[in-house]
From TrEMBL:
Lineage: Bacteria, Pseudomonadati, Pseudomonadota, Betaproteobacteria, Burkholderiales
Xref: SMART domains: Elp3 (SM00729)
Keyword Iron: yes
PROSITE patterns: RADICAL_SAM
Protein name: PA0069 family radical SAM protein
Length: 364
């Protein structure tokens, strides 16, 4: 008689269903009923996971600006105030970074968050170095800078305050309506061509979004955020990413709604499944779309040269092959018809002035 494995269940408000072991762990264990009450223990553990609370840990960092020279990424400098993200997007390519912290890219990534509490002080010091030369900073490229804990910690706001003081250009990407809180900082900078905001809208289907991105703002709320930002004079764009064959099927409708809400530039990527993201995504498919799971993965592999993921700079963002080409054609036809600019919003680098020491005022 074979082993009876304890079933995995989708968890309300979470993207992942398990604490998937990270790739550096030596021992991997599967839960199964051995006849000694293991099944009941597994069910009790599942109930505990349903009540799983978000934890925040604090760290002091030595640097906050990350430089990038990847040819397929349109920025060379980024900043992320947090590690891990409570939004819980199952497809998030940043999940494997939690492995370096000896934490699971699954549930730990969305429940054990790291806040860089000295991010503003370190940014001030880095911008103040004599050798520093300004280049647009992309905020929130790995984890959402306006995820729920930002409401209380206000680390992203503290970063924007430093950038405003030094007149340093930045763009940020988010799935959260919380960005509206900081319009008092962002709008004046936008008026001087120093700020732009990109809102990710993966789908207009609220039920699907709740499964894909369980703690991000609802699609209709993100559209309202686009309108609020645009009405305040902030240049806004929309990211219709990631595109997942047979899952996200309303790209054109998203683009039309985003245009109506005030977005004037658009971009997309196809789903990326590096390292532990692949088994997490497959598990998610089996839980939510079991009849389609094999077909979806087959199409993803067609875009990745037969593999779950291919890190080749030439294809990792858009994929290759027939399905990738079909997605590209749909995007290009829709953006051309609607009138979108597919270039990122240009910002002014000439106004930068090094910030003063913390607490030091300016006469100018």
């Amino acid at each position: 008689m074979g082993d009876s494995f304890i079933p995995v269940h989708a968890l309300k408000g979470r993207g992942a269903a398990t604490r998937l072991p990270h790739r550096f762990e030596r021992d991997v264990r599967d839960a199964f009923d051995d006849g000694w009450g293991t099944l009941e223990e597994g069910e009790a553990e599942a109930e505990g996971l349903q009540r799983l609370q978000t934890e925040v840990r604090f760290e002091d960092v030595k640097s906050v600006l990350s430089e990038n020279d990847s040819p397929d990424i349109p920025f060379d400098r980024s900043l992320n105030p947090y590690r891990g993200c409570e939004h819980g997007c199952i497809y998030c390519f940043a999940r494997p970074t939690h492995s370096y912290l000896n934490l699971s890219p699954g549930l730990d990534f969305e429940t054990k968050l790291i806040a860089k509490r000295n991010v503003a002080e370190v940014l001030r010091a880095e911008l103040g170095r004599k050798a520093y030369r300004p280049s647009q900073i992309a905020i929130g490229t790995a984890t959402d800078c306006y995820q729920p804990i930002e409401r209380e910690l206000r680390l992203t706001r503290s970063v924007i305050e430093v950038l405003k003081e030094s007149r340093h250009p930045f763009g940020l990407v988010t799935k959260s309506s919380a960005v509206e809180r900081d319009l008092d900082l962002i709008a004046p900078m936008a008026a001087d061509r120093l700020a732009a905001v990109y809102v990710t809208i993966t789908t207009l289907d609220g039920e699907l979004a709740r499964k894909l991105e369980p703690r991000a703002a609802a699609p209709h709320r993100r559209l309202r955020t686009l309108r609020t930002l645009a009405d305040a004079g902030v240049p806004v764009g929309v990211s219709v990413a990631p595109q997942i064959p047979f899952v996200t099927e309303d790209m054109e409708q998203v683009l039309e709604a985003a245009w109506e809400a005030g977005a004037r530039c658009a971009f997309y990527t196809v789903v990326r499944l590096p390292w532990e993201v692949a088994p997490l995504f497959k598990q998610w498919l089996e839980l939510h779309y079991p009849q389609r799971a094999d077909r979806i993965m087959a199409r993803i592999r067609e875009m990745r040269g037969g593999k779950d993921y291919d890190a080749d700079f030439a294809t990792r963002m858009k994929g290759s092959g027939l399905w990738a080409d079909l997605i590209r054609q749909r995007f290009e036809k829709a953006t051309n018809r609607i009138g979108f600019n597919r270039q990122r919003i240009g910002l002014d680098l000439s106004a930068f002035r090094p910030p003063g020491a913390a607490g030091q005022g300016s006469l100018f």
